[in-house]
Amino acid sequence: MALAHVEFFAETLGLQSSIDVILPERSRRRVGLESADVSPPYPVLYLLHGASDNHTCWQRFSSIERYAADKGLVVVMPAVQYSFYSDMKQGFPYWTYLTEELPEIVRAFFPVSDQREDTFAAGLSMGGYGAFKLGIRQPERFAAVASLSGSLSQRSRIVTDPNAGFHNPILFEMARLTFGSAEAYDGSEHDLAHVLEGRIKEGARLPKFYQACGTADFNLDINRNFHRQFAGRVDLTYLETTDAGHEWHYWDTAIQDVLDWLPIRRASADGEHDSNGDERGE
């Protein structure tokens, strides 16, 4: 795999921004690292960081580059600070950046597909919320989205005492700056369960969902509640790992399962695509 560090001016944010990008390499000569025999345009995975992380953490604390080597896809890791992948009430419009400007920048710099069937999102914690937010609010653009230890509801961060427990008080303050009050959050575009209920009622073509959490994770109840609400109503894969907490050892393992689960299409010599080795119709 090739690794690109990209610095650029984001017009939407009015400031310099960063992405790290993992790309397939044509050479298959590297010892000990299998490479997929694929050609551009490549499928693309937007891999999202957690609240206290940035665009470098997936590479620093997991082996994502090695795991993605035989998948034949581009992995884009953007930096969004403590934005909850949202247009903040008091702050920057990171949702607009993520959904409008960033895809155009990625396609301008790298040979990625613009097809829904080739576009995915995944993330951990706040990034799991962001990945599901992309799939729920823009189902026409994403074929599959995955959440690991996802904070799939942000309401508790608005109403809970920020000094309770081990949580970082800065995270609670940023949630309030992003969403405002609990009343403003409930039933809004940020309330994923509310938006997904609306999508189901509309009969929208939804992506595949992958949801995983450890039983020792403080986000477990949030994940169980989401699963109970939508199991059997959407294409949702749900996994719990016994005793796994909110930590990188778990995410490093879980992201491998996500990559295997993604419905990645492979282009054949005649231009047809298949997924997981099977012929797939459009």
TrEMBL record:
What Gene3D superfamilies has UniProt attached to this entry?
A: alpha/beta hydrolase
Keyword Isomerase set for record: no
The record's section on InterPro entries has: AB_hydrolase_fold, Esterase-like, Mycobacterial_A85_antigen
GO molecular function (one): hydrolase activity
Which branch of life, at top level? Bacteria
What SUPFAM superfamilies would the database entry show? alpha/beta-Hydrolases
**TM stretches of this protein:** none
Q: Name one Pfam family in it.
A: Esterase
Name recorded for this polypeptide: Alpha/beta hydrolase
